[in-house]
Each structure stands twice: as structure tokens, then as C-alpha cells.
Amino acid sequence: MSNYSNDTLNFFERVYLVVEQIPEGRVTSYGAIAKYLGAARSSRMVGWAMNAAHNKPEIPAQRVVNRLGILSGKHHFPGTNTMQRLLEDEGISIVDDQIQNFKKVFWDPSDALNS
DNA sequence: ACTCTGACTATTT
DNA sequence: CAAATAGCCAGAG
Question: For strand B, which residues in window 18-47 of chain A come within 7 Å by CB?
Fold first, then answer.
């Protein structure tokens, strides 16, 4: 790895930590994570972090979708519907690349802290 | 050092 | 209501 500045590394680490905490069968959005990290306007960076997260198979990137519950990042997974298949395997219904009952399966990191 | 791009989102037309 | 535009910020060439 190249020399990442501490700030950048912290940002990526935070994103990873949040994503790893997403319960099975639940999903969240880039914006929600970004907001939780205090960078609500850096939702794209969350996606960027996810891209880097490909080196970390322990990170369930399939549980992170856009705010509409659409599998915007499905093309970044190997195969054709790997992302969809992984989510369906967790009990999430997906139709036309969109998560059904999204509001129901949505998991907000802030909610996890509030317990 | 400059420019382009992107797994987003909110706003405006 | 659907489509275009503008902010956003960091990595890569």
C-alpha cells in the first residue's frame, strides 16, 4: 500500500467498521454512512471506500446501496448478479435491481448506536 | 500541478 | 413527475 495519510486511513477504516456492523438481512445507504461519519456530503467517498474495500472480503459491500435501495454497485461485483444473489441469500427481496421493502430492511448506523 | 472520473444526493428545470 | 445540474472530495493518469 502507498502511504495513506492518517486522516484518509481513518475515513476508510470508519467506513469499513460501519459496513461490517450491518446486520445480516439489513442494508444501509452511502449517505447514511457518510452522515454517521460526519461527512454527509461525502457519500461518494463512501462508495470510493467500498471500491477500495474489495481487498477486504470480510466487508459485506452488497449491504450498501444507494438511498433508493437500488443496487447501484452491482456492476462492481464479479459475475452478473452476484450482489443481488448475496442479498437474496440473506432474505432480502430484490426486483429489477431494487430492494423491496427497502424501508423495512434499512439499517441506520445511528440507530445501532442508540440501541 | 491540472484534469477527469466516480458504488451519491439534493435541488432545479 | 422525469431528467438535467450542481455540489461534494479523494484517487489516478
Answer: 29-32, 43-47
